[in-house]
Structure formats: structure tokens, C-alpha cells
Design goal:
- 40% of the residues lie in helices and 15% in strands.
- The protein has two domains: 7-184 and 364-375, 3-Layer(aba) Sandwich (Rossmann fold); 201-362, 3-Layer(aba) Sandwich (Rossmann fold), CATH 3.40.50.2000.
- The longest helix is centred in the first third of the chain and has 18 residues, at 69-86.
- With 379 residues, the chain is an alpha/beta fold.
- Helix 2 (23-29) crosses helix 14 (365-375) and helix 5 packs parallel to helix 6 (133-145).
- It has a six-stranded parallel sheet, sandwiched between helices. The protein has a five-stranded parallel sheet with strand order 3-2-1-4-5, sandwiched between helices.
Length: 379
């Protein structure tokens, strides 16, 4: 049974994520509670959707991927004043900066339920960057922020991230920690369509950053098309200022070359998944559970992804098989699995159906949101 009349404050560093990743959760929250969001400046469409839900919006200038001490101090002051003003019963931050800064402030304000969600550890815990100054500072701040507290309930989207924080001694087994199956997928919104097994095509949906395996996908597409020139490759995703953005040279090759079709950022991925036969995400690390793979599974698409944190959750470890896990940065293995689907079109159809069944069993957003509300003491 839902508790009623709670004041909930959500803090994030990506305005788009409020609808894309948390929209269904917010819909459940507003049925019984008052919801506020503390967010970077909202695009008009997202603002309108949140307003229709009767969510109170508070905007800031935070940039999650850039380092600016002055901007972060300003963010801290704004969030402190907001907590003091609205006196939330539940504080739900996600992504690093809102989690780190917000959790400390929520303890100061003695908010009775502090539920930070780490939806992926990402850049700061990658093998290549874990010794960098920024990564060390981030981990130190995270350790301080997540000091054990009886009002602190930490949410992870995969078991690997939880184990990583234990290994770094950022957490101990005395912490109240919970693992949910990603952000979930709305099975009504992402509906099944049969894949095209005659005109085989691959698609990747991702920001254009190195850690997502953009280079590997580009090279695999280039080499596969030398042997199978009729096979189509597409790429959806934004290219923006980011500490891990792909090189300008690679971006120009993607944008201007003919190895794959670059579609940029799109408002609705469903038509593009529908047109694709197989969905690919050769990500290196740092995923909660990749949303693009869950959406693709819900629409009945076979997948190829990496045996890396979060990604491995999307391939059924038991029979029936719905896709492949490949080693990170392994272009020959990626090509091998692409060629498997090219040669066996029946597998595209069968693996897609298996993926849909797996999504229904494990990743249905209604199941995950029910779990989230329980963790936040809202039911």
C-alpha cells in the first residue's frame, strides 16, 4: 500500500533523463506524493511533460561532465537552500554530482529517506582513468558522501558496481545497499515488431564517446562491408563536449564516410529499432544497464554487446539465447558475431523473441518501479 502525502525531491545532471529514464517512476510518485525536480535547464518538451504531471521544477546550470569548482559551489548553495525551503521527506539523486553533493546536504538537513542511485560508475572507475587526479578526487568525495547513515539507502543498477565500491572501500557490508535491474523498459511503449531478416542491418544507439565502443563499431562496419557490401550499418547518438568524446577525426569519418549512416540524435528511437535487424553496443565499462539494449529487446531485436559491467546483464546466461557477449575492444569478435547473424537470418528472429521474453521477465519497468518505491519507503 502506498504511503501518501510525502514530499520527494529528485536531483539529476541530465534534463533529458527525467522523462527518458525516470518518466514512469515519476508518474507513479505523483499519484500520491508531491514531487520536485532539481535539474539543469529543461528543453520545452520536457518542461511541458513534467508540468502536466504537476511536478515542481527548479533549474540550475550544472554540467555533469565538466569540471568547474565555481559552478559546483553555486550548485551546492542552490540545492542547500532548496532543501531548506521545501523540506523533502525523500531525496532521490542520481548520477555522480547530484549523488555526491546532494547526499551530504540531505544528511545535514536530516532528510528521513536519502536514496542515491548510482546508475553506472563510468569514467572514474575505468582501468584507463582510475589513477587520474579527477577520478581520485571523485572517489574520495563519493566515499565521504556515502558514509554509513541509518537514513541512507543506496541503489545500484547492477551487482558489479556494488562490488566495485566494496573493493574500493567506499562502501562496506554495513551499508544499506540495493540492486535493481536497471531503469527498466516500458513494454507498452516499446512494442514488438518482427525484424527484417531479408535486408539485414545493424544499428548502434549511443553518445559518441570512446567508452561506448564507437571506434570498434565503425571499424567492424567498414570491414564487414568489404565482404558484404549490401549490409547496412546505422549509428544514432549525440556528439558533444565530453571528457571522453571521440576524436574529431573519427567523428568526421563517421559523418562523411559511407561505411555507416550517421543519424545524429533523434527524439524517438523506435522507428529506427524497428527498421534494424540487430542492435549493437560494444561498450567498455560503466553502464547501469544500457537503456538502448532494453528498448531493443522489448521490440524483439537480437543484440551484440560487451562482456562488461551492466551490458552483461542483458544477455540471458541461460537458454534460450537472445544475443552475444564479446570481449571489450575486440573488433574481430564483434565482426564474427555480426557475420553469424548475416549467415543465419533465422537466429535474428529467434534471438529477438527470446530477448522479448527476457525483458518481460527481468526488466519490465512496472516491476522495477515497484521495487524503487519500496526502497524509498513510499509503499
Amino acid at each position: 500500500m502506498l504511503k501518501t502525502g510525502q514530499i520527494i525531491l529528485i536531483a539529476c545532471d541530465s534534463a533529458k533523463s527525467l522523462i527518458d529514464f525516470r518518466g514512469k517512476l515519476i508518474e507513479e510518485m505523483v499519484k500520491q506524493h508531491t514531487v520536485h525536480v532539481f535539474t539543469p535547464v529543461l528543453p520545452k518538451a520536457i518542461r511541458e511533460k513534467l508540468t502536466l504531471l504537476k511536478v515542481t521544477i527548479h533549474e540550475n546550470q550544472l554540467s555533469g561532465s565538466n569540471v568547474s569548482i565555481l559552478a559546483d559551489i553555486k550548485y551546492l548553495i542552490m540545492l542547500y537552500k532548496l532543501m531548506k525551503k521545501i523540506k523533502p521527506d525523500v531525496f532521490f539523486p542520481y548520477t555522480f554530482k547530484p549523488v555526491i553533493y546532494g547526499t551530504v546536504l540531505a544528511k545535514i538537513h536530516r532528510i528521513k529517506c536519502i536514496a542515491p542511485m548510482l546508475s553506472g560508475l563510468g569514467y572514474n572507475f575505468s582501468p584507463e582513468n582510475k589513477k587520474s587526479f579527477v577520478s581520485r578526487i571523485t572517489r574520495l568525495m563519493l566515499r565521504f558522501s556515502l558514509i554509513k547513515n541509518k537514513r541512507l539507502y543506496i541503489i545500484f543498477q547492477n551487482k558489479d558496481d556494488y562490488q566495485t565500491l566494496l573493493s574500493y572501500k567506499i562502501l562496506s557490508d554495513q551499508h544499506q545497499a540495493f540492486v535493481v535491474n536497471g531503469s527498466g523498459v516500458d513494454l507498452e511503449h516499446y512494442q514488438y515488431t518482427p525484424p527484417d531478416t531479408k535486408n539485414i542491418s545493424f544499428i548502434m544507439i549511443s553518445r559518441l564517446i570512446n567508452a561506448k565502443g564507437i571506434h570498434e563499431y565503425f571499424e567492424a562496419a567498414r570491414l564487414i562491408r568489404l565482404k558484404y557490401p549490401d549490409i547496412q550499418f546505422k549509428l544514432i547518438g549525440s556528439y558533444a563536449d565530453n571528457i571522453d568524446a571521440i576524436s574529431p577525426d573519427l567523428y568526421l569519418k563517421i559523418k562523411n564516410g559511407d561505411n555507416l549512416q550517421y543519424l545524429g540524435e533523434v527524439d524517438d528511437v523506435r522507428p529506427h529499432i524497428k527498421d534494424a535487424s540487430v542492435v549493437v553496443l560494444p561498450s567498455y565499462y560503466g553502464e547501469g544497464v544500457p537503456r538502448c539494449l532494453l528498448e531493443s529487446m522489448a521490440m524483439g531485436r537480437a543484440i551484440i554487446t560487451s562482456d562488461s559491467v551492466g551490458c552483461r546483464e542483458t544477455v540471458n546466461p541461460e537458454s534460450p539465447q537472445n544475443g552475444f557477449l564479446i570481449p571489450i575492444k575486440n573488433i574481430p569478435e564483434l565482426m564474427s558475431k555480426m557475420e553469424f547473424y548475416i549467415k543465419d537470418s533465422d537466429a535474428i528472429y529467434n534471438y529477438g523473441l527470446n530477448g522479448l521474453a527476457f525483458a518481460k521477465k527481468k526488466f519490465d519497468v512496472t516491476l522495477i518501479n515497484d521495487r524503487m518505491l519500496s526502497i524509498m519507503k513510499l509503499k
